Amino acid sequence: MINTILVEDDSRLAGNIIDFLELESITCDYANNGETALNLIEKNQYQVIILDVNLPRLDGFSVCERLRTQGVAVPIIMLTARSQLEDKLTGFKVGTDDYLAKPFAMAELVARTKALATRKSGQLFRFKAGNIVFCTQENQAYIDNQPIKLLPTSLIILEHLIRAYPHSITRQSLNLAIWEDRAPNSNSLKVHIHYLRKALSQHSSSVCVVSVNKRGFKLQDTDSESQ
């Protein structure tokens, strides 16, 4: 059983998140503002903190920074309505471990929560799928311990796929991660997925990018694809 706390001021969204997490055997305490969250975190032990950025009284960045200053090392997933690079960099600077832009698929939140809860300290910034390792601190992907060169957009797509692995991520989530709400056209994501597939194949990746019901993508073992 994984014990978490959700800090989110949107009560309707919070209720949906809590219901979904509990279906996955993840218990979840709740706070609707930063000050209440700090009090609960001080009194209880959590394996993961799910923290919204835009909070009343004390925003998510301030909560995260205060926890790290106090020596709290519990992994933190930060939720935000925007996926701007500046916000992501601010989050990582104050000590967040992961970042998820709204709207997101509940299955992706579950996958990231479980991944952070089961990883030991020092492994939080490395995500693995098959023979691929993605290091968020270096913003670099490796296949069989050898660095691979990818286009910036392909790198963003791979990072989100490997964070969600073995689950899928929606097209909408990928579009938001890359372009926010300014995707050039409906074929842009398809083109970048093509380039990523080609690059992984050229470097003998043991996983490949597959389409899931035309709604999203995921990483899958190449052996499974051929069956």
Automatic annotation (TrEMBL):
Residues 122-221 form the OmpR/PhoB-type domain. GO terms for biological process: regulation of DNA-templated transcription. Keywords: DNA-binding, Phosphoprotein, Transcription, Transcription regulation, Two-component regulatory system. Residues 122-221 bind DNA. Gene3D superfamilies: 3.40.50.2300, 6.10.250.690, Winged helix-like DNA-binding domain superfamily/Winged helix DNA-binding domain. PROSITE patterns: OMPR_PHOB (PS51755), RESPONSE_REGULATORY (PS50110). It comes from the Bacteria. GO terms for cellular component: cytosol; protein-DNA complex. This is XRE family transcriptional regulator. It comes from Vibrio coralliilyticus.
